[in-house]
Amino acid sequence: MINILIADDHVLVREGLKKILKSETDMTVIAEATNASEVFESIQKNPDIVLLDISMPGVSGLEVLETLTRDHPKLPVLILSMHPEDRFAVRAFKMGAVGYITKESAVAELVQAIRRIVGGGKYVSPAFAEKLAGELATDHAKLPHETLSNREFQIMRLIAAGKRITAIAAELSLSPSTVNTYRARILEKMNAQTNAELTRYAVENRLIE
To answer: Among 74, 70, 75, 7, which residue's Cα sits nearest to residue 36?
Structure first.
């Protein structure tokens, strides 16, 4: 039996995933989590795979992934996201994920992805695999947001979503001055002058909801 932990803060998404898995006689959802602390608590139930949403409240899915990879290196994590693969998948794989599917494609790909990953493989959609192969065959220039560190990327998304520096600082347990330092570094790397430019870039590249 494949024991599955679903980590997503949207109840409708979790119910939809459980409906997809319900017809599989060798798969069972043993736990659900809506935030980072619940994920780490549910790990004690020893799932065989974690289905992890990138955009959870508070501590982001990418930070959860980073912690899981460090503390539970043998536990495979399949990223579920509303964001296109070409925006987040490469970063997620570099951080230790072994699979990435969009929520739109979950109905068609979820079961196949779980079986491949539990069997020791990795999973991306055929279309994204073809895109990656094409980029590897050419001198692929990085997009501006791909030059950001994981923390810079997280803060950039929060700024682009309209959050104030003080709110970001409180959410990430940082000082406002530290967040301002990150903001300055982000603006430089992104070749931007204002928060509005970051927001426009994030919207155009579908980095925020």
So the answer is: 7
CATH code assigned to 144-204: 1.10.10.10
Contact status, residue 142 vs residue 183, Cβ threshold 8 Å: no
Domain topology for 2-136 = Rossmann fold (3.40.50)
- pTM attached to this predicted model: 0.72
- Show Cβ contacts of residue 149 under 8 Å, excluding neighbours closer than 6 positions: none
Q: What is the pLDDT of residues 124-176, one digit of tens each?
A: 887 777 766 665 555 556 788 888 888 899 899 999 999 999 999 998 889 99
| Residues contacting residue 166 through CB under 8 Å, at least 6 positions apart | 176
Exposure class string for 78-109: b at 16+ Cβ within 10 A, else e: bbbbebebebbbbbbbebbbbbbbbbeebeeb
